[in-house]
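Q: Is it fine to ask for two folds in a single conversation?
A: Yes, each is treated on its own. Send the first.
Q: Here.
A: Result:
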Amino acid sequence: MIRYREGSCGTKRQGVRMNVVDFIRRELTEDDWMADGACRGLSHLFFPTAAERPQTRERREEAAREVCASCSVRLTCRDFAREQREYGFWGGETEDERHAAGYRLIAPIGVRARQTS
């Protein structure tokens, strides 16, 4: 649905496009294990910022790997990320490592997108 709003001189301008979410196809997952993750509150380590530099990415992922190393739900987290095709660092594994293990992202970006086409 496209909503229109009135401009300052009474003209209608296109506003924000609103999408309808299809709840019928939503797949429920068992994610109670997330409450036990050592990463709670540390999302800045597990998901990159826009235009992250390679050196910064390496340092961030190394810090995330250290958090995951002592986590009691690491394997469950890794399996979840593989099955759900998640982005970011999950269960001690980067997107690239999941990709190399045969778990493809739904919409690959960057280098992976060029390699898979």
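Q: Second one now.
A: Result:
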Amino acid sequence: MTKVNARFATPFQSSSLSCALVPAPEKANLREVDLEVKVQLLVSESCVPCDQAAKVWRKVAAERGLDFSVVSLDQPEGRTLAARLQLKTIPALLVDNALVAIGVQSLDEARALVSPARS
């Protein structure tokens, strides 16, 4: 299992995945993507940070009119995505099936990731 700084982590184990609050990667920036972007948040039902991330992304998706869905790792689709991406930490944010962020973003960070898509 990947070790995560305890300051940002919430204990969670399901198979070999961990659940964490981590800052959004600085390189993840979707400013140049097509406006018809598919945003997926991979979560687990027992992951508290996943609930926090889902709230943030639901709000941003509603503001920006994004094609947004929450995909549970408890379902076959979620397990398939996690295996394909070799995920070890959730929540994980995918845009057009590409991993762009791990952890919980603030509203401002999430908005910046999809700006100016449908703004």
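Q: Anything structural to flag on that second result?
A: Two points. The domain at 36-106 is CATH 3.40.30.10 (Glutaredoxin). Confidence is low (pLDDT under 50) at residues 1-14, 27-34.
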